[in-house]
Design brief:
- The protein is elongated.
- The longest helix is centred in the N-terminal third of the chain and has 64 residues.
- The mean pLDDT is 85.
- It is mainly alpha-helical and 270 residues long.
Length: 270
Amino acid sequence: MLISTGVFVVVILSLVIVAGVFLRVRWLKKYAAHQKVEGISYIKRLVEVLIKAQQHRGLTTGYLGGDHSQIGQIETLERDISRLLADIAMLDGFMNNSRFRGITDHWSRLNGQYETLGLASNLTQHNKLITNFLYLIEDVADAHSLESAANTSSTNVRLMQVLQAAEYVGQARAIGTGVSAAGHCDSVARIRLLYLHGQIVSAMLSPSQSSNSGHEAGEPISHFLSVLESMTQVDGELLDAQSYFALATRALDSIFAQVDQEISQLKCPN
């Protein structure tokens, strides 16, 4: 009888342990699914604001260079960015952090102040703001344990490489729009554009880009690089500001299409 009772206790304990393990695994799967959905939702929202902040940088630089034709679009972007940041601020959870609060505070000081800042400071402040957006996107991916399904050996590296490539093009769009609006490329702008040209070429040759950039992505970027190279020549031909901005935006759109692909491949580790 004592033996039977002992066996019974062992069986019960074993069942309890098995049930506990099963419930734990089930909870972890649900948690991972929640992490993925939440993290990707945050990243998509941040990328949307990032794109508009890059556009605002380019158009305000053009405005300060002398092209005042896009003032309406600048004002629309300012409203959109403020609204999107306010929407993100309403979310519970991870986004209630110091980096995001720093971004919203920075934008509140930058919004509508580009004329006061002047061309150089406006560009610098936008660059700092956008850099913090990139850091925050990486923070989100890390905090939610997101990694690329195409390359599980390195978490979110592919996404960040593509976003950095987009930022190089975005900076070149801004500087070049200012140059085109002013009608001349001074030595400082020329050096910056040459540097960005080299960074874009390097980014496009990286494994994460070369494996994803087919003809649709490569042609707009190649065309943009060709125009950028011409601009940096001493007697290089300049497009008008609106044409240059549109050309650079087409190149950026092709890169952000790759960003969308990378986001769609993010997953939580099993």
